[in-house]
Amino acid sequence: MGLQSKIFNIQNEQEFEKITMEVYNFQAKNNPIYKEYIQHLNIPEPTCIREIPFLPISFFKTHTVISNTEKPALVFKSSGTGGQKSSHSISDLSLYLKSFNLTYDTLIGNPEDQVILALLPSYQEQGASSLVYMVDHLIKRTNHKLSGYFLSNLDDLIQAYNDAIKQGKDVVIFGVSYALLDLAELNPDLSQARVIETGGMKGRRKELTKKELHTILKKGLNTSFISSEYGMTELLSQAYSFANGLFKTGTTMRVLIREVNDPFNYIEDGKTGGINVIDLANVNSCSFIATQDLGKILPEGFELMGRFDNADIRGCNLLVH
Asked: Which of 60, 88, 146, 298 has its CA at a distance of 20 to 30 angstroms from the CA of residue 128?
């Protein structure tokens, strides 16, 4: 079985660790930027996941991070609010499709049973958004005329929700934070929808902590909880949060928590540190990314705590509690 096939057939943690080491060995040889980064670190050859060096996410702003010589089929770009944009060159879009479909189906449900409504105006305006690419495909999979995008026509979204509920459909609403706050001001009853916020005020509103944002949205949208999607331009895998506010990852992704002041050491579960992401779907770019997000690992998942003070403001920006 080839490496890419193995990535999407992981059954347990032992397989995840074994395949992760295979991906590391492949990228250490075939990714020029990552290879050079490892050489500069001058560290012993890793023998387990926790010894693998993680590439700072800022490299996606300054370099083309790619592990093969194929011409990219597509280049995703970040929203770039507050600084230089990150770019992620995708040589094989089928890996992204497999990754987000597998994770969504496992954690959220089958789109064929759903109506998906999207409130992502700023992402649509920027173009080359990995989030819009994902939501486009999920909407198509619903094969339902009520599914679609709503730029500023919030009354139409509420009507589509009501019509979908009457038809007995599950409703999922993807929304950028500021657009969901606009929707919440109308105080609709969306109690039967799963609302998934994707982060991002895009300079339209003041930044809020995740907790503050969800408190306002729950009240304004009459929902018992708000889900979040943890994803970014530099990743082809996602995590989703649920009623307890904790994120679960799919089979291609894992999160480790590093010390804030010593990025090559890890801290114990329950303590806050920097989030390192293993994303095996990134086999053609870099699967080992040190993000600028803060979080902690708990028994039921990981909690997103905010961002490093000196990190650029970006789509998933949060202030530290």
From this structure: 146
Give the other-Cβ count within 10 Å of 156's Cβ.
Answer: 13
Identify the burial level of 29 via C-beta atoms within 10 angstroms of its C-beta, where 0-12 means exposed, 13-18 middle and 19 or more buried. exposed
Is residue 206's pLDDT more than 80?
Answer: no
The first and second tokens of residue 212, run together, are 């503050």
Instruction: Calculate what percentage of the chain has a pLDDT beyond 90.
Output: 81
- What's residue 121's pLDDT? 85
Domain 96-245 has CATH 3.40.1350: no
Tell me if 116 sits within 8 A of 142, measured CB to CB: yes
Region of poorest pLDDT, from 34-38, 240-244, 303-307: 303-307
- In the chain, where the domains are located: 96-245
Place of tokens 């075939």: 30
Cα–Cα dist 199/247, whole Å: 14
Residue 270's SS3 state is: coil
**Torsion sign over Cα 120, 123, 128, 129:** negative
Phi and psi based region of residue 83 (left: phi greater than 0; alpha: psi -120 to 50; beta: remaining): left
Residue 206 tokens, joined: 């003041």
Q: How far is CA 274 from the centre of its chain?
A: 16
What gap in Å lies between CA 180 and CA 236, rounded to an integer?
A: 24
pLDDT in tens, 78-92: 876 556 889 999 999
How far is Cα 233 from Cα 282, in angstroms, rounded to an integer? 11
Integer Cα distance of 199 and 10 in angstroms: 29
Q: Which amino acid is at 221?
A: L
